[in-house]
Write a structure and sequence with these properties.
The structure is a homodimer of 218-residue chains. Chain A has 218 residues and is α/β, with parallel strands linked by helices. Chain A has helices at 19-31, 63-70, 95-99, 104-107, 115-126, 137-147, 160-168, 201-215; strands at residues 3-7, 35-40, 48-49, 56-57, 76-77, 88-91, 131-134, 153-157, 172-175, 182-184, 189-192. In chain A, 35% of the residues lie in helices and 19% in strands.
């Protein structure tokens, strides 16, 4: 039985993990017969957003505690993970990736990555664990890869500004529709635009399911 | 194009809507070509639970604001809904149904239902709108039905205590495995045990997909 690690950045598209992408990922993995463990970093969210009006709320929330909502409590701190235990690792998207895992949403190409995430992803890249990065997460991946001089081929769909940021990290951006994936065979990396490009949950699921299916092949 | 209303009780199994059941519902509806609108009541949650350790947190959260996380902001207050606009209505489960929509989790058969939810469901029952109730939500439905002398046939799986509560409301409980549904043809009601019975997301999805598929038939 193959084993996957799914890494969540909170719970909610505007300040955490994109919930629909996260659940679709968990469902596709379970249906593929993959044993799944879910992880998140034990850090504060950058902020808390009211998802109705988009305004910042005067609250503090913890990424690991909020991500546990998606995981039904079955979640662990990412700091203790050995990447070698897994056959694949998947990062769903959401602004949590660009606000909690790094500050890409605020600083663009000058972003800084949260150390526990940077260390985890560098280990995964070094060990050549097959990686699936969804939505905005491929931009984080390209940033971390640049730290070890690795140039990847990834997609975030067709958003020009984000594509330019990815290219500034030395990676190549591939245009891709919501229901398809970009494959970096050499580095065993699959990326998919999901809600960077998608309008509805069914087309987002089509792309993510392709990503999981292809990850099983590596 | 058929239209569905999905009613959420927050965001997180222990104090709100069960996230995985909610997303699976939205995905199955979109795949079936159904136009979906999402609603929640604008009320405070009964409490906030840390989903890692199960303990109550010293916080206040609003059901509508938290449910908006699952809905990516596309959600409206249930108080303004006309049930006649919809071909079907679906209630995912989670403790939010038994803590925010009523106090079943605390008071059992002596529970009281939140007025805005009671009024909405009584209208739906009176208009004979096809209804899908998931997980613990069928117990809420049986309670509300008892107010208008309606006896239903529903399932929450095989939990004896909850089944007895449902029978105390005058409805009949039908034993049902996680991957199947109970059909009350006369009242156009489909119920499914989901995480009341399920261990994994794939088997939970199998049942919910059957529920949506069957709702399309009415």
């Amino acid at each position: 039985m193959k084993k996957a690690a799914v890494i969540l950045s909170g719970s909610g598209v505007y300040d955490g993990a994109e919930i629909q992408e996260s659940v679709i990922t968990l469902l596709a993995l379970d249906r593929a017969g993959v044993n799944v463990e879910i992880f998140a970093p034990n850090i504060d969210q950058y902020h808390v957003i009211n998802h109705i009006n988009g305004k910042e709320m005067n609250e503090k929330r913890n990424v690991l505690v909020e991500a546990a909502r998606i995981a039904r409590g079955e979640i662990k701190d990412i700091k203790d993970v050995d990447v070698k235990n897994f056959d694949m690792i998947v990062f769903p998207g959401g602004f949590g990736v660009a606000k909690n895992f790094c500050d890409l949403a605020l600083k663009g190409k000058d972003c800084v990555v949260e150390p526990v995430i940077e260390e985890f992803v560098i280990q995964a890249l070094s060990e050549k664990i097959p990686l699936g990065f969804i939505c905005i997460a491929p931009a984080l991946l390209a940033k971390i890869a640049s730290k070890i001089g690795l140039k990847l081929e990834v997609t975030i769909g067709s958003d020009v500004e984000t594509a330019q940021i990815i290219e500034s990290f030395g990676s190549t951006h591939i245009q891709c529709p919501v229901n398809d994936i970009a494959i970096d065979k050499k580095n065993k990396i699959i990326t998919v635009p999901a809600y960077m490009e998608g309008e509805g949950i069914a087309e987002v699921a089509e792309g993510i399911e392709k990503l999981i299916f292809k990850l099983m092949d590596f």
